[in-house]
Amino acid sequence: MSAEGSLKTDLMVYAAILVMAGVQIFMAYHSPGVIRMLVVAAIQAFLAVMFFMHLRDEKPTLRIALIPATLFVLVMMNMVWADSFRLISMKPFPK
Amino acid sequence: MSEANLTMGHGAGVMEDRPFAIPSKKLVMWLFIISDACTFGAMLFAYGYVRNAAPDWPHHFETSSIINVALMTFILVTSSLTMLIGTRAAKAGDKAGAIRFTFVTVVLGLVFAALHLREWSSMIHEGVSLFQNPWGAPLFGASFFGITGLHLAHVISGAIALTVVALGYKRGRYNADDIEIWSLYWHFVDLVWMFVVPMVYLLNVAQ
Q: Is residue B3 part of a domain?
């Protein structure tokens, strides 16, 4: 960990992550939606990786090595959705 | 420069600078974290798949369950903060402070695990198991216990690892870098929980 950042920054990020967790709970009761909730979770994760795990203080080569490959794998997993919709709406064996 | 020197890497001038400028143990932890992120990603995608494809997916999490989850989230995020303070203390040479805050983190992790096990116990008592679910789709039990169980296993193994590292640091076997490397793991466990909560709990709230 480099000397960048401070306890004040850590506390602000901690508070922001908790507030966003509260926002998710509010959304669950008032406007549930998977995309909206996952966007909030992604922002929380970004803050955790950059500030708690101090990836922002590392060399750019480390970020380039880690982030695109991980995101690529996670994005490619999205190809399952078409099949899950087929199961519920198209019926493999229609009467 | 001979080929032998290049391949054996004995000459100091032949070696490249470390491309990431971090200790090799830290790089290994980062590689573990991205592989674990893909594991959790696959489990959450599988969960989304079965949830999407099941017409009778249960929405049974009552307000009491959501309050419990909110408390668990608060405890886990707070444990990340205490781990940060412990890491900062270790880097500043404050050995006592680093050990104290690492153990606070371990205790918070164990409280989280206890709350989780209490919730599991309540659900099992209501009839949910790996293969059956009284509220609808049977796969709910398998996916719920699979995802939360994998996460719980990470929390418990993280608490054990942090205890071992803190005791080793106290005895001089490990150094501040080791505390920092295991703090990465702990923050990752926290990060995964941020996705488990909306996917598994909040999208299945009883309205």
A: no
pLDDT over threshold 70, residue B16: no
Q: Rounded to 10 degrees, what is the CA torsion of A58, A64, A67, A70?
A: -130
Contact A29 B21 (CB under 8 A): no
Calpha distance B111→A89 (Å, rounded): 43
Is the pLDDT score of B12 beyond 80?
Answer: no
For residue A69, which residues of chain B lie inside 8 Å, CB to CB?
Answer: 34
Q: What is the mean pLDDT of each run of 10 residues along chain A (95 residues)?
A: 70 97 95 91 96 92 92 91 76 53
Place of tokens 């679910």: B133
Q: Contact B41/A78, CB-based, under 8 Å?
A: no
Partner residue facing A25 (CB), from B38, B77, B202: B202
Return the residue in A18, A84, A88 with the most chain B beta carbons within 10 A, the one to mutate for interface testing. Answer: A84
Q: Is residue B6 part of a domain?
A: no
Q: Given pLDDT bands bounded at 50, 70 and 90, which one contains residue B136? A: confident
The answer to whether the Cβ–Cβ distance between B52 and A81 falls below 8 Å is yes
Convert the pLDDT of each residue in B37-90 to its tens digit: 999 999 999 999 988 888 888 888 999 999 999 999 999 999 999 999 999 999
ipTM of the complex: 0.87
Residues 6+ away with beta carbon under 8 Å from B70: A21, A22, A25
Q: Is residue B172 part of a domain?
A: yes
For B:83-142, CB contacts with A below 8 A are: 84-85, 87-88, 91
Q: By the CB < 8 Å criterion, does B32 face chain A?
A: no
Q: How far is B147 from chain A (nearest CA, A)?
A: 17
Residue ranges of domains in chain A: 7-89
CATH code, domain carrying B152: 1.20.120.80
Is residue B124 in a domain? yes
| Number of domains chain B contains | 1
Residue A26 to chain B, least CA–CA distance (Å): 9
Domain of B185, in residue numbers = 24-204
Residue B169's Cα: distance from chain center in Å? 22
Q: How far is Cα B67 from Cα B79, in angstroms, rounded to an integer?
A: 18
